[in-house]
Protein backbone atom coordinates (compact mmCIF):
# COMPACT_ATOMS: atom_id res chain seq x y z
CA UNK A 1 0.00 0.00 0.00
CA UNK A 2 2.90 2.38 0.68
CA UNK A 3 3.96 2.03 -2.96
CA UNK A 4 0.48 2.97 -4.22
CA UNK A 5 0.42 6.01 -1.96
CA UNK A 6 3.86 6.95 -3.31
CA UNK A 7 2.51 6.85 -6.88
CA UNK A 8 -0.43 9.09 -5.89
CA UNK A 9 1.80 11.64 -4.15
CA UNK A 10 4.20 11.59 -7.09
CA UNK A 11 1.29 12.35 -9.42
CA UNK A 12 0.24 15.33 -7.31
CA UNK A 13 3.75 16.80 -7.34
CA UNK A 14 4.58 16.30 -11.01
CA UNK A 15 1.22 17.63 -12.17
CA UNK A 16 1.64 20.82 -10.16
CA UNK A 17 5.24 21.36 -11.30
CA UNK A 18 4.41 20.67 -14.96
CA UNK A 19 1.61 23.22 -14.92
CA UNK A 20 3.54 25.83 -12.95
CA UNK A 21 6.93 25.78 -14.67
CA UNK A 22 6.19 24.29 -18.08
CA UNK A 23 8.79 21.57 -17.41
CA UNK A 24 7.77 17.98 -18.08
CA UNK A 25 7.01 15.91 -15.01
CA UNK A 26 9.47 13.27 -16.19
CA UNK A 27 12.29 15.26 -14.62
CA UNK A 28 10.89 14.22 -11.24
CA UNK A 29 9.15 10.99 -12.21
CA UNK A 30 12.08 9.09 -13.71
CA UNK A 31 14.39 9.23 -10.65
CA UNK A 32 11.53 8.55 -8.22
CA UNK A 33 10.05 5.72 -10.31
CA UNK A 34 13.49 4.12 -10.59
CA UNK A 35 13.70 3.94 -6.79
CA UNK A 36 10.12 2.69 -6.45
CA UNK A 37 10.69 -0.01 -9.08
CA UNK A 38 13.74 -1.21 -7.12
CA UNK A 39 11.42 -1.60 -4.12
CA UNK A 40 9.08 -3.66 -6.30
CA UNK A 41 12.01 -5.91 -7.26
CA UNK A 42 11.93 -5.17 -10.99
CA UNK A 43 14.90 -6.55 -12.92
CA UNK A 44 17.87 -4.12 -12.89
CA UNK A 45 18.25 -4.20 -16.69
CA UNK A 46 14.67 -2.93 -17.09
CA UNK A 47 14.62 -0.34 -14.30
CA UNK A 48 15.38 2.84 -16.21
CA UNK A 49 13.63 1.83 -19.42
CA UNK A 50 10.43 1.18 -17.45
CA UNK A 51 10.82 4.44 -15.53
CA UNK A 52 11.21 6.37 -18.80
CA UNK A 53 8.26 4.62 -20.46
CA UNK A 54 5.96 4.90 -17.44
CA UNK A 55 6.84 8.55 -17.04
CA UNK A 56 6.11 9.23 -20.71
CA UNK A 57 2.70 7.56 -20.50
CA UNK A 58 1.86 9.45 -17.31
CA UNK A 59 2.51 12.78 -19.05
CA UNK A 60 -0.44 12.26 -21.45
CA UNK A 61 -3.22 13.38 -19.12
CA UNK A 62 -0.98 15.94 -17.42
CA UNK A 63 -0.24 17.68 -20.72
CA UNK A 64 -3.94 17.71 -21.65
CA UNK A 65 -4.95 19.28 -18.34
CA UNK A 66 -2.10 21.81 -18.40
CA UNK A 67 -2.73 22.80 -22.03
CA UNK A 68 -6.44 23.31 -21.38
CA UNK A 69 -5.70 25.70 -18.53
CA UNK A 70 -3.13 27.66 -20.52
CA UNK A 71 -5.59 27.85 -23.42
CA UNK A 72 -8.08 29.61 -21.12
CA UNK A 73 -5.43 32.32 -20.77
CA UNK A 74 -5.03 32.41 -24.60
CA UNK A 75 -1.44 31.26 -24.16
CA UNK A 76 -1.28 28.38 -26.68
CA UNK A 77 -0.06 29.15 -30.21
CA UNK A 78 -1.82 26.36 -32.08
CA UNK A 79 -0.21 27.10 -35.48
CA UNK A 80 3.18 26.49 -33.82
CA UNK A 81 1.90 23.25 -32.29
CA UNK A 82 0.71 22.04 -35.71
CA UNK A 83 3.97 22.96 -37.45
CA UNK A 84 6.13 21.16 -34.88
CA UNK A 85 3.96 18.11 -34.29
CA UNK A 86 5.10 16.09 -37.33
CA UNK A 87 8.75 16.39 -36.36
CA UNK A 88 7.88 15.84 -32.69
CA UNK A 89 6.14 12.54 -33.46
CA UNK A 90 8.92 11.28 -35.74
CA UNK A 91 11.70 12.23 -33.34
CA UNK A 92 10.00 10.91 -30.22
CA UNK A 93 8.83 7.62 -31.72
CA UNK A 94 12.21 6.85 -33.27
CA UNK A 95 14.20 7.73 -30.15
CA UNK A 96 12.24 5.28 -27.99
CA UNK A 97 13.81 2.40 -29.95
CA UNK A 98 17.27 3.94 -29.55
CA UNK A 99 16.65 4.17 -25.81
CA UNK A 100 15.54 0.55 -25.64
CA UNK A 101 18.85 -0.56 -27.18
CA UNK A 102 21.00 1.42 -24.75
CA UNK A 103 22.21 -0.30 -21.56
CA UNK A 104 20.83 1.12 -18.32
CA UNK A 105 23.99 2.85 -17.07
CA UNK A 106 24.81 4.94 -20.19
CA UNK A 107 21.14 5.91 -20.43
CA UNK A 108 21.16 6.95 -16.76
CA UNK A 109 24.30 9.04 -17.27
CA UNK A 110 22.74 10.78 -20.28
CA UNK A 111 19.58 11.48 -18.27
CA UNK A 112 21.56 12.89 -15.35
CA UNK A 113 23.69 15.11 -17.59
CA UNK A 114 20.61 16.48 -19.31
CA UNK A 115 18.92 17.16 -15.98
CA UNK A 116 22.08 19.00 -14.88
CA UNK A 117 21.71 21.19 -17.98
CA UNK A 118 18.05 21.85 -17.14
CA UNK A 119 18.93 22.64 -13.52
CA UNK A 120 21.69 25.05 -14.59
CA UNK A 121 19.27 26.73 -16.97
CA UNK A 122 16.79 27.22 -14.13
CA UNK A 123 19.32 28.25 -11.47
CA UNK A 124 20.97 30.90 -13.63
CA UNK A 125 17.69 31.88 -15.29
CA UNK A 126 19.37 31.45 -18.67
CA UNK A 127 17.18 32.80 -21.44
CA UNK A 128 18.18 33.18 -25.07
CA UNK A 129 17.87 36.76 -26.28
CA UNK A 130 14.85 37.18 -28.56
CA UNK A 131 16.63 37.80 -31.82
CA UNK A 132 14.54 36.36 -34.61
CA UNK A 133 11.14 35.12 -35.72
CA UNK A 134 9.90 31.56 -36.03
CA UNK A 135 11.48 29.54 -38.87
CA UNK A 136 9.49 28.15 -41.77
CA UNK A 137 7.69 24.82 -41.92
CA UNK A 138 10.89 22.83 -42.63
CA UNK A 139 12.77 24.50 -39.79
CA UNK A 140 9.91 23.93 -37.36
CA UNK A 141 9.71 20.26 -38.36
CA UNK A 142 13.46 19.78 -37.93
CA UNK A 143 13.32 21.48 -34.53
CA UNK A 144 10.45 19.19 -33.59
CA UNK A 145 12.50 16.11 -34.49
CA UNK A 146 15.33 17.24 -32.22
CA UNK A 147 13.07 18.16 -29.31
CA UNK A 148 11.07 14.95 -29.67
CA UNK A 149 14.17 12.76 -29.82
CA UNK A 150 15.76 14.19 -26.68
CA UNK A 151 12.38 14.19 -24.90
CA UNK A 152 11.99 10.46 -25.51
CA UNK A 153 15.47 9.70 -24.18
CA UNK A 154 14.81 11.55 -20.91
CA UNK A 155 10.99 11.16 -20.76
CA UNK A 156 10.08 14.83 -20.52
CA UNK A 157 7.31 16.82 -22.13
CA UNK A 158 9.88 18.92 -23.97
CA UNK A 159 9.37 22.12 -22.00
CA UNK A 160 13.04 22.55 -21.10
CA UNK A 161 13.79 22.72 -24.84
CA UNK A 162 10.62 24.14 -26.34
CA UNK A 163 10.30 27.14 -24.01
CA UNK A 164 13.87 28.45 -24.65
CA UNK A 165 13.48 27.87 -28.41
CA UNK A 166 10.20 29.77 -28.63
CA UNK A 167 11.54 32.55 -26.41
CA UNK A 168 14.54 32.88 -28.73
CA UNK A 169 12.06 33.29 -31.58
CA UNK A 170 10.43 36.30 -29.89
CA UNK A 171 7.46 34.41 -28.43
CA UNK A 172 6.25 35.79 -25.08
CA UNK A 173 7.23 33.62 -22.11
CA UNK A 174 3.62 32.90 -21.09
CA UNK A 175 2.80 31.79 -24.64
CA UNK A 176 6.00 29.74 -24.84
CA UNK A 177 5.03 27.85 -21.67
CA UNK A 178 1.44 27.34 -22.83
CA UNK A 179 2.50 26.18 -26.30
CA UNK A 180 5.08 23.85 -24.74
CA UNK A 181 2.34 22.29 -22.62
CA UNK A 182 0.30 21.54 -25.75
CA UNK A 183 3.34 20.14 -27.57
CA UNK A 184 3.80 17.77 -24.63
CA UNK A 185 0.77 15.76 -25.80
CA UNK A 186 2.18 14.46 -29.14
CA UNK A 187 5.48 13.84 -27.36
CA UNK A 188 3.77 11.75 -24.67
CA UNK A 189 1.52 9.84 -27.09
CA UNK A 190 4.20 8.91 -29.63
CA UNK A 191 6.72 8.17 -26.89
CA UNK A 192 4.30 5.89 -25.07
CA UNK A 193 3.47 3.95 -28.23
CA UNK A 194 7.16 3.60 -29.05
CA UNK A 195 8.13 2.34 -25.59
CA UNK A 196 5.19 -0.09 -25.57
CA UNK A 197 6.31 -1.59 -28.89
CA UNK A 198 10.02 -1.58 -28.01
CA UNK A 199 9.38 -3.49 -24.78
CA UNK A 200 6.76 -5.87 -26.14
CA UNK A 201 9.04 -8.89 -26.55
CA UNK A 202 11.24 -8.21 -23.53
CA UNK A 203 11.58 -11.05 -21.02
CA UNK A 204 11.15 -10.53 -17.28
CA UNK A 205 8.84 -7.53 -17.29
CA UNK A 206 6.40 -7.40 -14.35
CA UNK A 207 2.70 -8.23 -14.53
CA UNK A 208 0.39 -5.45 -15.75
CA UNK A 209 3.04 -4.02 -18.05
CA UNK A 210 2.36 -2.83 -21.59
CA UNK A 211 5.79 -3.18 -23.08
CA UNK A 212 8.00 -1.06 -20.84
CA UNK A 213 5.00 0.84 -19.41
CA UNK A 214 3.92 -0.17 -15.89
CA UNK A 215 0.18 0.47 -16.06
CA UNK A 216 -0.69 0.61 -12.30
CA UNK A 217 1.78 3.48 -11.83
CA UNK A 218 0.43 5.32 -14.90
CA UNK A 219 -3.16 5.07 -13.67
CA UNK A 220 -2.39 6.26 -10.14
CA UNK A 221 -0.06 9.08 -11.19
CA UNK A 222 -2.40 10.32 -13.93
CA UNK A 223 -5.48 10.19 -11.70
CA UNK A 224 -3.94 12.88 -9.48
CA UNK A 225 -1.76 14.88 -11.89
CA UNK A 226 -4.77 15.60 -14.11
CA UNK A 227 -6.18 17.76 -11.31
CA UNK A 228 -2.97 19.33 -9.97
CA UNK A 229 -1.62 20.38 -13.39
CA UNK A 230 -4.36 23.04 -13.90
CA UNK A 231 -3.71 24.28 -10.36
CA UNK A 232 -0.03 24.80 -11.14
CA UNK A 233 -0.85 26.46 -14.47
CA UNK A 234 -3.23 28.89 -12.77
CA UNK A 235 -0.76 29.76 -10.03
CA UNK A 236 1.98 30.44 -12.59
CA UNK A 237 0.60 33.97 -12.88
CA UNK A 238 0.56 34.58 -9.11
CA UNK A 239 3.54 32.86 -7.44
CA UNK A 240 7.22 33.95 -7.48
CA UNK A 241 8.13 31.56 -10.28
CA UNK A 242 11.87 32.51 -10.47
CA UNK A 243 12.33 31.47 -6.83
CA UNK A 244 10.39 28.25 -7.37
CA UNK A 245 12.51 27.45 -10.42
CA UNK A 246 15.69 27.63 -8.34
CA UNK A 247 14.22 25.31 -5.71
CA UNK A 248 13.10 22.93 -8.45
CA UNK A 249 16.58 22.99 -10.00
CA UNK A 250 18.19 21.88 -6.73
CA UNK A 251 15.57 19.15 -6.43
CA UNK A 252 16.43 17.92 -9.94
CA UNK A 253 20.12 17.66 -9.11
CA UNK A 254 19.39 15.72 -5.93
CA UNK A 255 16.95 13.33 -7.60
CA UNK A 256 19.28 12.65 -10.53
CA UNK A 257 22.19 11.91 -8.19
CA UNK A 258 19.95 9.59 -6.16
CA UNK A 259 18.89 7.76 -9.32
CA UNK A 260 22.48 7.19 -10.41
CA UNK A 261 23.30 5.88 -6.93
CA UNK A 262 20.29 3.52 -7.09
CA UNK A 263 21.27 2.13 -10.50
CA UNK A 264 24.94 1.71 -9.61
CA UNK A 265 23.91 -0.16 -6.47
CA UNK A 266 21.33 -2.42 -8.13
From TrEMBL:
Belongs to the 4-toluene sulfonate uptake permease (TSUP) (TC 2.A.102) family. This is Probable membrane transporter protein. InterPro entries: TM_pro_TauE-like. The chain crosses the membrane at residues 7-34, 46-64, 76-99, 105-124, 136-156, 176-200, 212-235, 247-264. It is found in: Cell membrane; Membrane. Keywords: Cell membrane, Membrane, Transmembrane, Transmembrane helix. Pfam families: TauE. It is a multi-pass membrane protein. It comes from Rheinheimera tilapiae. Its main location: membrane.
Amino acid sequence: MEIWWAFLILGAVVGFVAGLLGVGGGAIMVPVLTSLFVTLNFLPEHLLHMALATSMASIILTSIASARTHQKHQAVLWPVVRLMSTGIVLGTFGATFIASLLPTLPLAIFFSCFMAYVALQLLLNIKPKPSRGLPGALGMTATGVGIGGISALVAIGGGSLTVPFLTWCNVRVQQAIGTSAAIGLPIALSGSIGYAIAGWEQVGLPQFSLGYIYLPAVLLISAVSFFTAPLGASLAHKLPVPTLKKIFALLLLGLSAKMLHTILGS
